[in-house]
Amino acid sequence: MELIVNLLGGLGLFLFGMNFMSQGLQKAAGARLRSILEAMTKNKIIAVLFGALFTAIIQSSGATTVMVVSFVNTGIMSLAQSVGIIFGANIGTTITSQLVAFNLTGVAPVILFVGAVFVMFGKKPMLKKVGEVLLGFGALFMGISLMKDAMADLKNYQAVMDALGSMDNPIVGILFGTAITVVVQSSSVTVSILLLMASQGLIDLPVCFYVILGCNIGSCTPAVLASLNAKKDAKCAAFIHVMFNVLGMVIIGILLAFGMKYFEAFILHVSGADVGRCVANADTFFKIFQTIIFLPLSAQFVAMSRRLVPGEDQE
Fold first, then answer.
1. Rounded CA gap, 17 and 171, in Å?
2. Which of 52, 94, 130, 280 has the smallest number of Cβ neighbours within 10 A?
């Protein structure tokens, strides 16, 4: 019971920190970035880069894709313009797991203290917003520290190890990643937890790759929900996000099935044999790979979404 309480407490602190940091970043820069977002979508490559940067700053691909869906729905942005931002958002969301892989838990209390000082005693609004970001950042890593300590004890429970061992099946791993991400509404959170579990030896690295693919599919949920009562083009934008991740999962899954040992060796070499870093780098690699192969087909994605999504086409 103590282990479960510590694990849930750490997860709660992690989710709170991530949400608080995201809100602080959006308060500090969100309004300006939204206006820039509208102007940075004329070139596909620039749109991808800006989508990645925007998502890295606000720490949520869900927020970015929901924003894009709303822009398309109101006519601020065309469906064709939205594709690059959606693809870039998938890359930008990997910044959270990269931060977690740096293992900054040792300095988390200092970051929390500085953030609290800024919030309580800062006289300028911008200083208070920066303080909120630091508070969220510190809480995020304090949560990671709690979860890491709790997960270290999970190895002592055979039932838990047997359950995790059942994910050796790629389909089970993909379904697990999808289900958890749908529940927590954030692939960043799921991949970060996966990273901690891999670091503690609870899940083998090949299994992590399939769980990441499932996380990518689950991350489509916020955009799909936002588009339910929207116009056809907004629904098409959400559908493009789903196609990007589902087709990516199929292609990468097939490649992994035939070349797992080569990819695992490559990731271990790039990451310096750090398993946690391997998970974060694999997540980033998958998103970049998908973007490279799908960006030249953006016009086809738009055409396919218009064909498959019901409703009348908009001018």
1. 32
2. 130
| Cβ–Cβ under 8 Å, residues 202 and 208 | no
Give which of 67, 105, 104 is closest to 88, Cα–Cα: 67
Residue 193 CA to residue 218 CA, distance in Å, equals: 15
203 contacts 164 by C-beta, under 8 angstroms: yes
Query: 234-268, pLDDT tens digit by residue?
Result: 889 889 999 999 999 999 999 999 999 899 999 99
Q: Of 63, 33, 51, 36, give the one whose Cα is nearest residue 90.
A: 51
Angle, alpha carbons 282-93-41 (nearest 5°) = 120
Chain-centroid distance of CA 30 in Å reads: 18
First to last CA, the chain: 58
Q: Which alpha helices (DSSP H) does 155-204 contain, by range?
A: 158-165, 170-184, 187-199
Nearest of 160, 114, 170 to residue 3 by alpha carbon: 160
